[in-house]
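User: We ran a pulldown and think these components assemble together. Before we commit to crystallization trials, I'd like a predicted model of the whole complex to look at. Sequences follow.
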Amino acid sequence: MRYQFFVFISAILSFSVFAQEKATLSGYVKDASNGEALIGATVYIRSLNTGTTTNVYGFYSLTLSRGNYEVEISYVGYSPQKQSVDLQGNVRLDIELNPQSNELQEVVITGTTERSMVETVEMSVNKIDIATISKIPAFLGEVDVIKSLQQLPGVATVGEGASGFNVRGGNVGQNLILLDEATVYNSSHLLGFFSVFNPDAVKDVKLYKGAVPAQYGGRISSLLDVRMKEGNNKDYEWNGGVGTIFSRLAFEGPMLKNKGSFIVAGRRSYIDILARPFVDVLQDGARLNFYDFTGKVNYNINDRNRIYLSGYTGRDIFFFDKNQGFSWGNNTATLRWNSILNDRLFLNVSGIYSKYDYQLQFGEDDQDFFRWNSSISNYTIKPNFSYFISSNNELSFGAEGIYYTFEPANASGASAGDVVDISLDRKYNLETAVYISNNQKVSKNLSLEYGIRYSNFWSYGPGNQYIYNDTTAGVRRTPISVIPYEKGEAMSQYGTWEPRFSMMYQINENSSVKASYIRMAQYLHLISNTTASNPLDVWTPTSNNIKPEIGDQYAAGYFRTLGSEKQFEFSIEAYYRNAKNQIDYIDGADLLINEFLEGDLLSGKGRAYGLEFYFQKKTGRLNGWIAYTLARTELQVEGINRGEWYPARFDQTHNLKLTGFYELSKRWSLTGNFTLLSGTPTTFPTSRYIMQGILIPYNANDTRNNVRIPAFHRLDISARLEGKTVKKNGKVRKNTDYWVFGLYNVYGRKNPFSIYFAQSDERIPPAGKSIESQAKQLSIIGTVVPAISYNFNF
Amino acid sequence: MNKSSLHIYLLVAALMISLLACETVIDPRLEEAEPILAVDAWITNKPEPQVIKVMKTQPYFDNSIPPGVSGAQVTVTDSNGKVYVFTEDPVGSGNYVWVPQGNEVFGESGLTYTLAIEAEGESYTATTLMGSVPPVDSITFRMEEGGQFITDLYLAEFWALDPPEPGNTYWIKTYKNGQLLNKPSEILLAYDASFTRGGAFSGIIFIAPIRTGINPFDEDSNGELLSPYAVGDSVYVELNSLSEASFDFLNQVIVQTDRPGGFSELFATPLANVSTNIFNTNPNGKRAVGFFNVASVSGLGRKFNSLDDLSKTD
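Assistant: Here's a predicted model for the assembly, 1108 residues in total across the polymer chains.
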C-alpha cells in the first residue's frame, strides 16, 4: 500500500513539472434541449487517439500538449459535434449536444456510451437509459427500474413479486442502492411488485455487478447507482401518465434567472380506490395506498461552483381502520456542492441523510394495543476529488463518514389497561472510509484502474454488549454476561482493506479482454429468513457478535463489437465470488423485537460462480438483446444441511432473457421480452409424523434446498402508440403523448413461485383414516395480465 | 412480534393479489428415508388415563394411520424417584397408557420428569420440567357487526392473569362443543401474557390477541366466513403449561405446519425439521423425533345460551 501511495504522489509531482508544456481543456457536456448534464459523454481527440468521458456531473478535463486540436464530442442518442480548439493555455469548453430525432434513436445498454464496452476499462457494469426502461414491458404497465434490471445477465430474483434483486449470487441485502448517493434501504412498493424510483425523475441507472470503484463500499454484492434528473433549465415541462396502478405527474423548469433548475415528480397508487369495497367491510378510517415524491433543485453559483439539493420521500400505507395497520417508507435528502478547484481538479462534497422506517399498530382502543416503530437512519459526509492528471491518468480520492442510528423497536403493548414498554436499545455506529484510485492508460492498448479503500466500523455506547455461550451449531445461544457501555464509548471496531483492480487490454478496434478483482466489506446486515424479503425485515449492525461480511470477486471477460457500424455488441464474462461471515438463522429463529437476536444468528460462507453471455443489436428497426447466465450460488453454514454446501434459494442454473424492440411504423412500436429460468431450489420432506393431531413434515436427511421447483418461463409484450405530432390544421403540436398497451404473461403460464407442504383442511380425519398430506404449487401470477397507460409531455 | 397484525396485513395484501395468484395440488416425487421412532408424549395432570404414543415416521405421502411400535418399555420417573409405568394398550396400537388409581393425578408442578423408552433394541430418553398454570377466570362473548360481505360475528374471549414471575409458557387449547380446535392455525401459545419471550408482559392479563385466539374462523361450503360461535354453542378453554423447550418446539411446529398458502408463501420460512427432546442414549444410535412435555392444566367452560350473554360495549 505504501509503495502504491508513493507512486501516486511521485506521479502527481512529475506531471506538475511538465505542466508548462501542457494545457488543460475542461468543461461540461449538456443536453441542448433541457440543460441536463450528460453522464459518460465522450470527448475525443482523433489526432492523438485519446479522450475521456464526462463524470456523473457531466464534467470532463483533458490535459494535452499545447496545440491546435479538433475535439469530437459524442453521446448516444445525440448528434455528435466537432469543434476546433487552439489550446495555448487552459481552455474551458462547455458543449451542448442536440438530441437526435426519435426515429434515429437507438436503444442502448452498454458499459458506457459510444465508446463501446470494448474500449473502456469498466467491466461487469450495465447502464440502462430511462428511454429503454420505459420501453420494456412491465407488470401492469408500470415502468420499473428494478424490474428492467432483471433483463440483464447476472441478475436474478427469488420469484415474481419478490422484492429486490440478486446480483451474481448475492442476496437482496448485499446490494448498495443509491438514489443521488443516498442509501435506499428498501427499494420496493407493495412488497415487491414495484420499485420506489419514479421513472419521470430518473436520469441514469447504472448497475455495477463487479469491479466497483474504490469510491463505493458497504455492500458486498453490487452497486445500483440511480441519478435523478436535474430539471430542464430552458423551458417549463410537464410529464405525466395515468396507469393501471399509479398516476404520475412531474414538473420541471428553469429558476433564478436560468441559473438554476428544478424538478418535482410524484406518483400515487389507485389501489385504495380499487379495494374500497373490500376495505369498507373492515372499518372506517382504512387507508391503502402508496406514493412517492421526488424533488431536486440546482443552482449555478458561478462558472466553477454549482449546488444541488435533492430529496425523496415515499410510503406504503395499509391501515384497516384508523388505529390498526402498517406503513413503511424511505426518506432521503442529498446536498451536493460541485467545485472546479482548477482546470484539472474537480471536487464534489455531498451531505446525505437517509432513513427507512416502518410502523405497525394494532388494537382498537387504549386498553389493548400493540404499537411498534422501527427505523434505520444515517447522516453521511462524502468529499470526493477527481484529479485529471493527464490524458492518461485520472486520480480519484476522497473520504466518507456515515453515522448510523438503529432503532430496532420503539414498541409498547397493553393488555386490559396495563401498558408495557418493550422497546429495545438504540444502536449507534460510525462507518468511515478513505480511498484513492487511479485510472491509467498505460499504453495504447492497456488501461488499468487500481485503487484501495480502507473502511472502519465502530459501535458506540450507550448500550449493552452481550457475550453468548457456545453451543452446538444451529442451536440458540444464550447470553452469559452483559457489559454496559457509557455514551460515546467504543464497543467494537473493525477495519478492512479493500483493494480494487481492473484492467483492459484492447486486442484491436473491435475486441478487448478485461479482468478485475475487488474486495468489499459490509457492516450492515439485512435480517431476513423468509423466502422473499419483507418490509419488516430489520437491518442490524456489525457488533462483537456479528462480524463484517467480506466479499471477494474475480471476473474476466471478452468484449467485441461486430458489424460494419459496430451495431452489434457481444460479451462474455466469467465471475467467481466468495463471501465470508454471511448471516444465517437457526431453525425457529426469533428475528423481531428480540433483545437477544444475535444468539439466533449463524455465520456461514458463500460462493458463487457463473458465465454471462450478452449479445445486443443496437440499431435498426429491430433491435434488442439476448442475455444468458449459467450460474451457481451456494452457501455453507454449520448447523444447516449437515454443514455441507447447499444451493441458495435464488440459485438459477440457467437464466435466459430475450428483449426485442420493433418499430412497426412511425407511430406504432412493439416490445417483447421472454424469460426462461431454471427452477429455484427448495426443501422437500421425506417423511411425516403426527404429534398431538398435527401432521409434521420431516426431512430425514437434514438436507436444505434438495430439489428444484419446475422451470419458469414467461412472455410479455407491449405496443406503444405515439400520439399525433401534427394538429388537424397542419400545425406541429407542442405537446407529445403516447399510449402503452401491454400483456404480461401472454400465454398465462402458471409459473411456480414455491411448492409447500401442508395437512388437509378438515378438522377431524374421517373414521379409520389419518390426516392427509398435501403438496401445493403456488403461482403468484397465474394468468395473463393486461395493462394500459397514457403518458404525456407538454 | 404480534402475529395477528401481520396476518391481517397479509390478508389485505392477499386480497389485492389473490385475483392473480393460483395454487395447484401436485404430487412430486420425494426422497426415500428409513422410518424412525416418533414419540408423542404430552402428559397432563388431568384426572384421566395418560397416553404416550410410540410410532414410526411414514413416507410423507403415506396417508395411512401411523404404524405403532409394539413391545416397548415406557416409563416416566420424577425427580423424587417416583416411577410411572406405561403399558401397551391395545397391543400393536403404539399407545402406552398409565391409568390413575382413585383420585391420583399425574405429576406435580416444579418437578422434573424423565421419560425412558426401550424400543427395537435402542433406548431413548427425554426430560422436561412441569410448569404451573393460573386459573381461567371467566369467558365473555361479544358481537362484532358484519357488513355487506361478512355476517355478524359472535366472538368469545377468555380472561386469565399470568402470575408475576416471568418465564411461564402455555398452550391454550380450545374446545368448541367438546371438539378440540386442532388445525395448525389454531395452535395458540403464550409466553407469559404475550406471544414472545422477554418477560416484559409478565404478571398481567393475557393480551387481547391471545384472549380472542380461541375463536375458530371456518368457512361454509361457499367460502363464506362463519361466525365463530352461535347461540347454543359451548366453549371450553384449557391452559396447559409448557416447558420452555416445548414452547419453542410448538412455535416451530406453527411455522412449519400453518401454511395458509397464497401470498403468505412469499414470506414463508424454508422447510426445516422441528426440534425434538427425545434422544437416543447412544449418540451413534438411531435418531427419534417427537416431544415430551408434562403439563399442569386449568380450564373453564361456558355455554352461549342467548344473546343476553353478550357483554355490553361502551
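Chain B is about 10% helix and 35% strand. That may be worth checking against your pulldown data before setting up trials.

User: Thanks, that helps.
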